[in-house]
Amino acid sequence: MLRHSGLLMLALDAALVAAIVLHALRRRFDDSDRGVGNVVVLRKPHPPSLARVAVFVAVCVLGSVGLIGLRSPDLSRTYRAVIAHMAVRIYPEPAVVNSYVSHLRPVIPLSFLAFSVALAVSIHATPGRRLVILLHAPLAVFTSVLADTLLAVGGIESGLPLGPFPLVSILMHYLVAYVLAMRLALTTYQLPRPTQVPITRKGDLLDTLILLTVLLVVFVLVATGADYVIRRTGGDPVFYTFVLIAVPVYLKFGIYIVLTVLRFFGGRRLPEPPPVEDRPPIDVIGPAYNEETNIVRWVESIDAAAVVYGGPVRLILCDDGSVDGTRALAEEAMARAVAVRGEVIAGAHAGKATALNLALTHCTADYVIRHDTDCEVHPQSFLYTVPWFESDPRIGLVGAFMFVKRPLSTWIDRMRSLELAAGFGLPRLAYAVVDMQPCVPGNYTAVRREAALEIGGWPEGMLGEDIDFTCSLARIGYRAVYDRRVWAYEDVPEDAAQLRMQRRRWSQGSIYNFARFVPFACGTAGPRFWFAEFFKGARRLVQPMQFAAYLFALQVALFDPGVRQNLPHLLAFFILAKLPMLVVVMCSMFYRGLWRAFLWWPLFLGFMMIKRLANVEALLLLRTRPVSPVWWHRARRTRPDSAGITWPVLRPRYLPEPAAGDDELAGVR
């Protein structure tokens, strides 16, 4: 028999926590971005610092050791006791309550505690901001307690079997960690303001219903599998390590599989259009800064694609202030070109997005292909790109399947090939079913010129401008597709230091774009926003917490009295956890004729560690906000100061024309 008074108090607590969290996610307080329109004006992140990364890892390790060695009080037992006490006040059957609560393992809440301490110690921040970061730890633990209490009461009342109960608890812990990590990031860092691109998109209800159904089906399948493993492993402490690693992987892989089945057998496949007879003109644009080692092959690859295409192709290179032979080599290569007509325009070394927008203003064709100058394009790519625009007015972006430039000469070349095999192919084909491609990379981006002009081109001063560009076009109604017949080849970092720098920049760009398009602040336009981009950005925030969780769970397994049995189990569980994506990579590498590179897979763990540490470094180097009372932000919520801003070449069409004497918009051309 439920006690309604206890249930009411629990509901009030949950409402209070929800208000505290959701208020921050609405982003009504951050005035760090001083830009206007399509310009982002933020202070650059701090310089790289491996020392801070080392401090973060050391604090996580020491925190995990301390939590494991702390026997009085035992935090795990205390956590379960608190939940049991709260649940009994609602459902006064201690024996039944304890049968549920005894299955709880608070690894993720305790890991969030270690993560918060490590972040507060190692980040660039004022003492007040460090304290606020630390306060997220008890908030996360309390939120997890509320979630587990609601789960226990709901499970008892609905007769939920004990088998899937731990899995549901783990997923709830992950959700709490995601939301609290978002709150921590949005209140801690200086971030771009929410996008000003309006939502005019319609017709996403079916995509949303399909994805919700897919999520439900995948959850049931993964829960069934986890229930089987639970019953097979009993009380093995290493099992929790397996679940922490495996559950997100199997959920993601399950989503890919079910969506792909719908693509091929459920009538959700967009047919790949054949080449058109009348081939319209296309413009190819690219920014370059000191690219003399790549620029000739870039021009030659575009010329080869233009020969196969057969229609008019114009090449516009924006030399963004190069001090080497980039311009001269490019002009010589263009003069030798057979099918492409090219020109080089001068940029002001104001950044990639500014150079792209300048090149876009010189375009006259209906379709524009943005192609980075350190990449190359396959000869048939133009031929199969344009038909998408000609056959479907909803298509606004076309992306290419990416490969590493041949030959593969370094271990990073081979690791990146493995990564591309996992990231392109099955995921991209699956996401196209419900139009939730989170990004069409600038290595090869074909776009309708009018659509690009409508959103003001690429955002200036913004890390991760490709994500912003893709999402902005989606908000005004355009869909993005990848074509398996369209290929491009990218350059790869030469060593671990360059890889770390690249991934640090990518992580910071993902966090910036998460802040730009967080649904609570600027609305949602289909599954791309409320699912794909939302969790992609949030994952960047949660990965350091997962790192702490893995350390904690691993040390639990190692320090357990049954360590001789735990280690073999741990190895077997790790292989099982990574098996789905390993199968995808293996099939893709053999399909691409790169099976020799697959033999390097044992080194992929080192590659992943560099990526994870670069993601940690990205969080530690972002600029933080000072702690100020709410009334201070309300007082400062005025129009941005435009002094000193280099305005974009393009005016987004959603911005009003500047009125006479309006200093804020007068500089936008």
DSSP strand content:
5-15%
Helix content: 55-70%
Number of strands: 8
Overall pLDDT metric:
85
Tally of alpha and pi helices: 25
Structural class label = alpha/beta
Q: Radius of gyration from the CA trace?
A: 26 Å
> How does the overall form come out from the CA principal axes?
globular
What do these coordinates show?
- It is a single chain.
- With 669 residues, the chain is an alpha/beta fold.
- It is 59% helix and 8% strand.
- The chain has 25 helices and 8 strands.
- The protein has an 8-stranded mixed β-sheet with strand order 3-2-1-4-7-6-8-5, with helices on both faces.
- Helix 1 packs across helix 6 and helix 14 packs across helix 21.
- It starts with a helix and ends with a helix.
List the helices and strands and how they pair.
Blueprint: H1 4-25, H2 50-69, H3 75-88, H4 94-101, H5 107-122, H6 127-158, H7 165-188, H8 205-233, H9 238-265, E1 282-288, H10 295-309, E2 313-319, H11 326-336, E3 340-346, H12 352-361, E4 367-370, E5 376-377, H13 381-391, E6 395-404, H14 411-423, H15 426-431, E7 445-448, H16 449-454, H17 465-475, E8 479-490, H18 496-517, H19 519-522, H20 527-559, H21 563-591, H22 595-598, H23 604-621, H24 630-636, H25 663-666
Parallel strand pairs: 1-2, 1-4, 2-3, 6-8
Antiparallel strand pairs: 4-7, 5-8, 6-7
Helix pairs in contact: 1-6, 1-7, 2-5, 2-20, 2-23, 3-4, 3-6, 4-6, 5-6, 5-20, 6-7, 7-20, 8-9, 9-20, 9-21, 10-11, 14-21, 17-18, 18-20, 18-23, 20-21, 20-23
